[in-house]
């Protein structure tokens, strides 16, 4: 019985690790959609805004303003509406964690 419980516990831990890895990968997939304008991992070419290392609260506020229409945009208002508020928070967390 003890041996079975150890295997069960090990299985639960492995499943949790796989789930956590999938979560990280999903955020990277969402963030990759930003690469066309904001560069790989948020490091943009000149002329576009880099997102890497920026304050996540400021980035999230900008996205929420785009999403609500408070901040005018050519495309960001459309893109931001494609994500939930939680997804946007995860995306800005990803960019904030990147080195400039």
Explained architecture:
The structure is a single chain. The chain is mostly helical. The protein has one domain: Cytochrome Bc1 Complex, Chain D, domain 2, CATH 1.10.760.10. 66% of the residues lie in helices and 0% in strands. The protein has helices spanning 2-32, 35-38, 56-68, 76-80, 85-97. Helix 1 crosses helix 5 (85-97) and helix 3 runs antiparallel to helix 5. The longest helix is centred in the N-terminal third of the chain and has 31 residues, at 2-32.
List the helices and strands and how they pair.
Layout: H1 2-32, H2 35-38, H3 56-68, H4 76-80, H5 85-97
Helix pairs in contact: 1-5, 3-5
Uncertain runs are none
Give the CATH class: Mainly Alpha
- How many helices? The count is 5
Number of E-state strands: 0
Corresponding CATH architecture: Orthogonal Bundle
- Percent in helix: 55-70%
What is the CATH homologous superfamily assignment?
Cytochrome c-like domain
The secondary structure category is mainly alpha
What's the end-to-end separation, in Å?
A: 52 Å
Order of helices and strands: HHHHH
Signal peptide: 1-22
Domain Cytochrome c: 14-99
Keywords: Electron transport, Heme, Iron, Metal-binding, Signal, Transport
Organism: Hydrogenophaga palleronii
What are the main properties of this structure?
Cytochrome_c_Oxidase_Subunit; Cytochrome c553; Cytochrome Bc1 Complex, Chain D, domain 2; 66% helix; 100 residues
Short description:
It comes from Hydrogenophaga palleronii. By secondary structure, the protein is mostly helical.
């Amino acid at each position: 019985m003890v041996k079975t419980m150890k295997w069960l516990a090990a299985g639960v831990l492995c499943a949790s690790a796989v789930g956590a890895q999938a979560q990280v990968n999903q955020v990277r997939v969402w963030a990759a959609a930003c690469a066309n304008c904001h560069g790989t991992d948020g490091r943009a070419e000149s002329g576009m805004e880099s997102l890497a290392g920026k304050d996540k609260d400021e980035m999230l506020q900008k996205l929420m303003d785009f999403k609500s229409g408070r901040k005018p945009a050519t495309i960001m208002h459309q893109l931001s509406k494609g994500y939930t508020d939680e997804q946007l928070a995860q995306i800005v967390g990803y960019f904030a964690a990147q080195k400039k």
